Amino acid sequence: MVTPNLMQPGLEPSTDCISSNDEDFTSAPPTGRLKPGLHLVATPIGNLRDITLRALDTLRTADLVACEDTRHSGMLLKHHDIRARLISLNEHNEALRIPQLLEHMRQGGSVALISDAGMPTVSDPGQRLVGATVAAGLHVEGIPGPSAVLTALAASGLPTTPFYFGGFLPHKKGARTTELTAALQRDCTSVFFESPYRLADTLAILSEAAPERRIVVARELTKKFEEFRRGPAGILLSHYQSKPPKGEITLLIAPVEPPKWLTW
After folding, report:
1. Peptide bond before residue 162 is cis, with ω within 30 degrees of 0
2. pLDDT in tens, 131-163
3. What is the mean pLDDT of residues 29-56?
4. pLDDT digit string (tens) for 2-23?
């Protein structure tokens, strides 16, 4: 997940957005402004202008907007002058929240699901809700938009199809080494999210196994200090050891047998 920097002047939490606690969930009756069901809405990964007109319309007309963090999402909605009823949905409360949202949809209500950034359910909460909604026979649709995975992949200079996305690399070195070893053996580009605090360690693992393998570090995508750094694993390791990175990072690893057109 790549998160927009919303903490800037004029983007304080919105007083126009209503955050709901578990106890007052039922105080939001269906309005009929949007088709009943679940609407997955992609939100910006950095630049707040990267949101579609359809996404904005959906957020304006949904009965409820389910999000990871109501304070964070409240800033985004305020920036786009949207008044919405925000409902938290995260790993800590989804067991309680999912039955409530399903009942709301069964009664003819609409729910827009957003994450802190990018497409909901992609290394973000929401998978269980989507699965439960499908199992209940209720309507589910996706409103496409920003994706750190596709943005990094398209601009990487590496083969884009097929590709493998592994989400966040494991925290523990042993599990991370196993995942990276598998990536080095694939015949397609591998894409991961990584913490800036572990990037040098990850590049060290790659450098030891395949120092000449082409690697791309996509950092702070769509933000002011966006960076694409491309090169052999060993060269990138030296760079980030001397200049520790900051911000959100998407890591791409070239396939074991790159195409002939890949000449950089």
Report:
1. yes
2. 999 999 999 999 999 999 999 999 999 999 999
3. 94
4. 455 543 433 444 445 555 554 4
CB 80 within 8 A of CB 12: no
- E strand or H helix at 206, and its extent? helix 199-209
Contact 44, 222 (CB under 8 A): yes
Task: Say how far apart CA 254 and CA 101 lie, in whole Å.
Answer: 41
CATH architecture of the domain with residue range 18-143: 3-Layer(aba) Sandwich (3.40)
Q: Please enumerate in sequence order all residues whose Cβ is within 8 A of that of 251, keeping only pairs 6 or more positions apart, or say none.
A: 169, 191, 192, 193, 194, 199, 202, 215, 216, 217, 218
CATH of domain 148-253: 3.30.950.10
Q: Where are the domains of the chain?
A: 18-143, 148-253
Tokens for 77, please give them: 């909605």
Structural contact between residues 132 and 98, judged by C-beta atoms closer than 8 angstroms: yes
